[in-house]
Design brief:
Blueprint (H helix, E strand, L loop, with lengths): L8 E4 L3 H12 L4 E4 L7 H5 L3 E2 L3 H6 L3 E4 L4 H10 L8 E4 L5 H13 L3 E8 L11 E6 L1 H6 L1 H4 L5 E3 L6 H29 L4 H28 L9 H18 L7 H12 L10 H8 L3
Parallel strand pairs: 1-2, 1-4, 2-3, 4-5, 5-6, 7-8
Antiparallel strand pairs: 6-7
The structure holds NADP nicotinamide-adenine-dinucleotide phosphate.
NADP nicotinamide-adenine-dinucleotide phosphate binds next to helix 1 and helix 4.
Length: 294
């Protein structure tokens, strides 16, 4: 292990995200060693001051902290296995997306080799690396994460979630799901707007303002969910069932597929059928938590 004042960083993976991370460590003045399965992808970075390693093992051997940003956890495992002799004593920060179980399995493997493991999820696109508009979720070896905080903060603001190596991916998947719900609704809405002759760019301005209000409303819903008290909500299941019925009928009339809202309609209908139409919209979480595990 080297003893530079500024820790030497090895980057495994120079795809869209890995290249952005490598560029950020170079810009922050860290000695940066890069490795990519397809070697030519390292050329732009070596021209910018990085050192190319011929193998994953050579990359690990030259570094204090190793950042992996590959396709998926299987490719991370494959790459680290080739370098397993060099894992001991090093910190592996895995910024590759996967499932919580895969994060925990990699953590156990790295620890078994004598290394320290931090799992991370990047909540940003490559263009946002080096800015404060996205963020990074970290979990696993918190001491190692804190030791390398100033390095990792060069990428994006950090949220450290505790010792469970699966926690970063638990939160990542929940946040991605929240975003996909909103974006699926947005895509459906733009199809309706197109049918009405309204350009998507014009509609997006209204949608962004509306989603700001929705984001604030989440605080109320979250309080009801944590208290498991759905008696006093501001927006009932029946009111929302009527709204979804309107959307569904209007979509069909306009020749737009109402499918993006079908699962919500199913939940609202089932909740009402149980006699719970007066409950808050937040009460649907109880159906989601119970019905789907049978
Ligand atoms: P990408 O551009 O497709 O790059 C994939 C990288 O993985 C390449 O370096 C590729 O090497 C390497 N790779 C694939 N299979 C491999 C294997 N079996 N062994 C070794 N290396 C292998 O992907 P990306 O956009 O950089 O994404 C990387 C990670 O960042 C993913 O987990 C992704 O979910 C996460 N992320 C991406 C974004 C984004 O907007 N791009 C945002 C948040 C998180 P070759 O060059 O040899 O093919």
């Amino acid at each position: 292990m080297t003893t530079h004042h500024s820790p030497t960083v090895a980057l495994l993976g120079l795809g869209s995200m890995g290249a952005a991370l490598a560029q950020a460590t170079l810009s922050a003045g860290h000695p940066t060693v890069v490795w990519n399965r397809t070697a030519r992808r390292a050329e732009a970075l070596t021209a910018a001051g990085a050192t190319a390693a011929a193998t994953p093992e050579a990359a690990l051997e030259s570094a204090d902290v190793v950042i992996a940003c590959l396709l998926d956890p299987a490719s991370v495992r494959e790459t680290l296995e080739v370098a397993s002799g060099a894992v001991a004593g090093r910190t592996i920060v895995n910024l590759t997306s996967g499932t919580p179980e895969e994060g925990r399995a990699l953590a156990a493997w790295v620890r078994a080799q004598g290394g320290r493991y931090v799992d991370g999820a990047i909540m940003a696109v490559p263009e946002q690396i080096g800015t404060t508009t996205g963020f990074i979720l970290l979990s696993g070896d918190v001491e190692a994460a804190e030791q390398h905080r100033s390095l990792l903060e060069q990428f994006a603001p950090l949220h450290v979630l505790g010792e469970d190596a699966g926690a970063a991916e638990e939160h990542n998947l929940a946040l991605l799901g929240t975003g996909y719900g909103a974006l699926t609704g947005f895509l459906h809405a733009t199809a309706l707007m197109r049918a009405a002759g309204v350009p998507a760019t014009q509609f997006a301005v209204l949608a962004q303002t509306w989603l700001g209000g929705i984001a604030e409303f989440m605080t109320d819903l979250a309080g009801e969910i944590d208290r498991r008290d759905y008696a006093g909500g501001a927006s009932s299941v029946t009111i929302n069932r009527l709204a979804i019925d309107h959307i569904t009928h209007h979509s069909v009339a306009q020749g737009v597929d109402p499918a993006p809202h079908a699962s919500l309609k199913e939940l609202l209908d089932a909740h009402e059928a149980k006699g719970l139409g007066a409950e808050s919209f937040a009460g649907l979480v109880e159906s989601l938590s119970t019905n789907r595990h049978g």
